[in-house]
Amino acid sequence: MKFYKEENFKEIDGLRVPEDWDVVELKDVCKKIKAGGTPKTSVKEYYESGTIPFVKIEDITNSNKYLTYTKVKITEKGLNNSNAWIVPKNSVLFAMYGSIGETAINKIEVATNQAILGIIPKGEVLESEFLYYILAKNKNYYSKLGMQTTQKNLNAQIVKTFKIPLPPIEEQKAIAERLKSIDELIEIKRKEKEQLEKAKKKIMDLLLTGKIRVKNLNS
């Protein structure tokens, strides 16, 4: 990694970035930014035997970056009779209501409800993984921004005007790859912690019920 001196930076729209980076509005580097919609839950044929994964906020919060599963699925008829649309895989999902700023990359084709934006970056100028990290980094800011609006939520028009730093595409990929490797290490440590906690629970049960006895350390 290379550290740059202060004089190698510039300021654009309140963001300080390296001289060879740009600052853009999100809508200018995306093919599509659109919310979904919810088929009427009272119509069984919109949901029964559905095959289209339907994303709600809790699916994003439970996804741990990559969304590969949803609890609810809808049918083609449900899709066609609502504002839901098919968000292609490897797009970015962004929550505008409730858990404002929660973000995930969908690894499968999905439809979403109206609280979630499907964001399709222009791949030649904006990398999905890089956008994910930019949005995740600014989650607290977006949440506060939503609280400042009259409805206490964000909307598509506000999100479209988000200003983001834009490095060259190859640098975006390198940044995302570095951060992804850290995420993978965190996940390994999390699983190790879970295994240790399970082992501790079993040992506690054995020791604290007398099923396993230990000698007095002073004897």
UniProtKB/TrEMBL annotation:
GO terms, molecular function: DNA binding
Coiled-coil boundaries: 179-209
PANTHER family: TYPE I RESTRICTION ENZYME MJAVIII SPECIFICITY SUBUNIT (PTHR30408:SF12), TYPE-1 RESTRICTION ENZYME ECOKI SPECIFICITY PROTEIN (PTHR30408)
Listed name of the protein: Restriction modification system DNA specificity domain protein
Pfam families, per the entry: Methylase_S (PF01420)
Annotated GO biological process: DNA restriction-modification system
Keywords: Coiled coil, DNA-binding, Restriction system
Family the UniProt entry places it in: Belongs to the type-I restriction system S methylase family.
Type I restriction modification DNA specificity domain mapped to chain residues: 18-198
